[in-house]
Design a protein that fits this description.
Largest sheet: 16 strands, antiparallel
Shape: elongated
Structural class: alpha+beta
Number of helices: 4
Strand order of the largest sheet: 3-4-5-6-7-8-1-2-13-14-15-16-9-10-11-12
Helix content: 10-25%
């Protein structure tokens, strides 16, 4: 009975959802949580009767994106995201990406891509907050800044342009998201945080969970000075008892910001995409069955989902992997609905409560959604297995 009530509540949420027009062009703050799950690992362990999950959870706040004609580049995956006038999320490069955008700025999407011969499921929920020019730092703050942490000796190059802030360590390779633009507020302040949680869970056997959270805040002053404070916590603790936050201080070294100097902050919004992440669903040769569809279909209180999987060396195993992808898609769909309607994603600065999408997804996985295989087709020419599954109450 509980399961049926849950399904009914999700369906009613879908029916009564209110879409907005595609967001207007401009800069937005993008706060989000994403889950990257290896569907193949989960299914391969299931063959041996082991419930296992291997995933990466990423929660980011303060990140900026540039929306042009209803499209923006996802900061981490590089996937191009399109928002239609009806609020529908899709991607011109990856047909599996689907989701919705709401009039309060909420955005959810999910889909799959293949990397290193593995099927990676991406599920994301977040909020887009308009940061038009009047809601960002003024042009008087523009410039290139050189900063140093006196304790560690680390130095940074910081670029502030049009109310956007980017930085990089000098002579040090850092995670790409750290170089993505952050919003500068009208008073010159800025803050961002990035949290990683990696999990390898084998139920009843072992759980390995590693987390790392980096928080950065600072301020750019009209007199040309800048101050930044950064701290990293691993598994909830600093790396050592004596570790102190990095505190960078510096001054503006140049007023010139243009393409010739290599410091055009808007170029950061348009970095090259990772083509390997768009390969999923782009099959060369062969024939896709006419019953195949990308979007989740509702059938009463149940759901229909299709998926495909390249040949994995054994036709039976390939079919099971494809079925796992189809079921994972339903879980992502339900998970983002629950997140959007039952655990509102807050952008309020004074909201200190921790809200994680992955806990909702975990709960759905624990329900062990039952399903039946409706259709399957193996195309020998393209070596791709197609399936359609339906949930059972």
């Amino acid at each position: 009975m509980t399961k049926k009530v849950f399904m009914h509540s999700v369906l009613l949420s879908v029916i009564f959802s209110c879409f907005a027009a595609s967001p207007k062009n401009g800069v937005y703050m993008f706060n989000y949580e994403r889950i990257l799950n290896s569907v193949d690992v989960q299914q391969i362990y299931a063959v041996y009767g082991i419930e296992a999950r291997q995933d990466i959870i990423r929660k980011v706040e303060g990140c900026g994106v540039l929306i042009e004609n209803g499209m923006f580049l996802d900061p981490e995956s590089g996937i191009e995201i399109s928002i239609s006038l009806a609020g529908k999320i899709s991607s011109p490069e990856n047909p599996t990406i689907q989701g919705k955008y709401k009039n309060n700025g909420e955005i959810t999407f999910y889909g799959f891509y293949e990397e290193n011969n593995q099927t990676i499921q991406i599920t994301l929920t977040g909020v887009l907050i308009s940061k038009e020019e009047s809601r960002r730092g003024g042009k008087s703050l523009n410039g290139i800044y050189e900063t140093v942490d006196n304790g560690s000796g680390k130095s940074q190059k910081v670029v502030v342009s049009d109310g956007l802030y980017t930085w990089e360590f000098k002579d040090e390779i850092v995670d790409s998201i750290q170089g993505w633009p952050v919003i500068v507020e009208p008073d010159g302040s800025f803050k961002s945080s990035s949290e990683y949680i990696t999990r390898a869970i084998m139920k009843g056997m072992s759980d390995t969970v590693v987390s790392s959270k980096t928080m950065s805040s600072g301020k750019v002053f009209p007199n040309g000075s800048i101050s930044i404070r950064t701290i990293t916590l691993n598994n909830g603790y600093t790396m050592g008892d004596n570790q102190k936050p990095l505190v960078f201080n510096g001054k503006k070294s140049s007023e010139e910001i243009d393409k010739k100097s290599g410091a055009n902050v808007y170029d950061k919004f348009k970095r090259k995409k990772k083509k390997s992440r768009y390969a999923f669903s782009k099959v060369s040769g062969g024939t896709m069955p006419d019953w195949y569809f990308e979007e989740i279909h509702a059938d009463g209180n149940n759901y229909l989902s299709c998926a495909m999987k390249s040949f994995a060396g054994d036709e039976s195993m390939t079919q099971k992997l494809a079925e796992s992808v189809a079921v994972a898609q339903i879980i992502s769909y339900l998970g983002t609905e629950v997140k959007a309607y039952q655990v509102a994603y807050s952008s309020a600065e004074n909201d200190k409560s921790e809200k994680y999408l992955y806990k909702t997804i975990d709960a759905l996985n624990d329900r062990k959604i039952s399903y039946e295989l409706v259709k399957s087709y193996y195309d020998k020419k393209s070596k791709v297995m197609y399936v359609c599954v339906k949930t059972k109450q």
